[in-house]
Design a protein that fits this description.
With 464 residues, this protein is of the alpha/beta class. The protein has two domains: 115 residues, Roll (Urease, subunit C, domain 1); 319 residues, Metal-dependent hydrolases (TIM Barrel, Alpha-Beta Barrel). Helices cover 29% and strands 21% of the residues. The strands form four sheets. Strands 1, 2, 3, 4, 5, 18, 19, 20 and 21 form a nine-stranded mixed beta sheet that branches. A six-stranded mixed beta sheet has the order 9-12-14-15-16-17, covered by helices on one side. A four-stranded mixed beta sheet has the order 6-8-10-11. Strand 14, helix 7 and strand 15 form a beta-alpha-beta unit. Helix 8 packs parallel to helix 10. The protein is globular. The protein starts with a helix and ends with a strand.
């Protein structure tokens, strides 16, 4: 090895060592109001962060001498917010929205065909059309998604992200919204099976209608349960028994059949909510409803079912252009007026719920829409819980996310006032203990650069 090359290697190693030495071992936010997400607020409190975790929190917490100090006077520290259903951070994914049953999309071919032959349309449930449970959002994560910075700038530090395509699209993953590599972002996988009732284009192809999709889902989950039983019996006594045929789709449904991952069912209207509560009961599997804008009409029914729900924060809005010859119906006007009252109705009925973005134009708008639910009667602490601790509980990560407690992941939001107030500015966001300085102004997903929200840290030991 020649000397210049050796010298270059030594220089690079020294530079890396210096860079690591400059990274603070501890952060300490002091003199701040702390809203832990569980329990009472702490006035003039301290939060200490070490190695990506919350090391200590309290009013009289000892601050390590080596800590990078952040003066929290006039600031409030909240748990990092969680988007309960999204495609944030997924490569080449459109925002997850609550699909209407009348919408159609072009279907992919379901049955492989010989080269040069026309794709064969699915003939029945055995072809498993629009079913890809082997797809997992954790395998699609991209740290380069420009929407991540825009979400962080609004205080969001985690999201449950799902594959966006298909009637049984695949499994969601709970990710943190920062990391140099995809594996550094994943907190838990799989989390839940994402399904839709979207009718695919060309109604002649199976299942081809809403009733067909419902029947297909019921049949598929019955088949999956039988498939797991058949394989369990075969493995218990291999000799002398014929093995079951391998089915990639049914194999992928094992986490659902085993009860380790719930099924997500789309339900917006009262009719859909009642229908899919019954469908979930028939499945005999854990499930959550998502959408639920008309939940204000049936909150006691949802409570009786004990099904948790994910509430879309994209409230119905008036179309920009209306046909004067075709005025809006009373039902449409009523829904637009009363949808923001759904969260308070669910809260009063004792239903566990969390908010999700539903393809909303910006995360600042999502917070404004949550404020509309607060204005409709939802207590502010319940709104915060629906963005922090409740989604963490629903997705099985409450031991690491959702509140400010020692030992949990250091996902924090530092703001200069009430998180839901229009003029409040978020100053810092911590994701896995890494500090991001939020720039002035509102970042939007469509214009946010790949590194939006990452400010240069000050080199002195105190951040003002």
């Amino acid at each position: 090895m020649n000397r210049p090359f050796l010298a270059l290697i030594v220089a690079l190693l020294l530079a890396a060592a210096v860079a690591r030495a400059e990274e603070p071992q501890y952060f300490a936010i002091r003199n701040a109001r702390i809203v832990p997400g569980r329990g009472s607020a702490i006035e003039n409190g301290v939060v200490v962060i070490h190695d990506g975790l919350i090391a200590a929190v309290g009013a009289n917490t000892i601050i390590p001498p080596a800590a990078l100090m952040i003066d929290g006077k006039g600031l409030t520290v909240y748990p990092g917010l969680i988007d309960a259903l999204s495609t944030l951070g997924l490569a080449e994914a459109a925002p997850a929205t609550t699909p209407g049953t009348a919408r159609t999309v072009a279907p992919p071919p379901s049955t492989p065909s010989p080269p040069g032959a026309e794709p064969q349309p699915p003939q029945g449930p055995e072809d498993r059309p629009h079913t890809t449970p082997w797809v997992c959002a954790a395998d699609l994560v991209s740290p380069a998604d420009p929407r991540l910075g825009a979400a962080r700038a609004a205080g969001f530090t985690s999201a449950m992200v799902v594959p966006p395509r298909g009637n049984i699209a695949g499994y969601g993953a709970l990710i943190n919204l920062a990391g140099e590599r995809p594996g550094q972002m994943v907190v838990k996988t799989p989390v839940a099976l994402y399904t839709t009732f979207t009718v695919m284009a060309n109604w002649r192809r199976y299942p081809g209608s809403l009733i067909g999709i419902i029947a297909y889902l019921k049949q598929t989950f019955m088949d999956a349960r039988y498939y797991q039983q058949a394989w369990a019996a075969y493995r218990a006594e291999v000799n002398g028994n014929r093995r079951p045929a391998h089915d990639r789709a049914l194999e992928g449904l094992e986490p659902v059949v085993a009860g380790r991952a719930p099924v997500l069912l789309a339900a917006q209207t009262e009719v859909q909510i009642r229908r899919y509560l019954e469908l979930g009961r028939q499945f005999g599997l854990p499930f959550l409803l998502y959408g639920v804008h008309e939940g204000y009409t049936v909150a006691p029914v949802i409570a009786q079912s004990r099904a948790p729900v994910l509430v879309s924060a994209k409230w119905p809005a008036r179309a920009r252009e209306l046909d004067p010859e075709n005025p809006e119906s009373l039902r449409t006007l009523r829904l637009r007026d009363r949808a923001p009252s759904t969260p308070v109705a669910l809260e009063k009925a004792g239903v566990r719920f969390a908010f999700y973005s539903d393809g909303i134009s910006s995360y600042k708008e999502m917070l404004r829409n949550v404020k509309k639910a607060i204005d409709a009667g939802l207590p502010a602490e319940a709104a915060l819980r629906a963005l922090t601790l409740t989604p963490a509980q629903l997705f099985g990560v409450a031991d690491s996310l959702g509140s400010i407690e020692p030992g949990k992941i250091a996902n924090l939001v530092v703001a200069d006032g009430d998180l839901f107030a229009e003029k409040t500015r978020i100053k810092y966001v911590f994701v896995d203990g890494k500090m991001f300085t939020v720039p002035e102004g509102e970042a939007r997903p469509e214009s946010a650069p790949a590194v939006a929200g990452t400010g240069a840290r000050k080199t002195n030991r105190e951040v003002n």
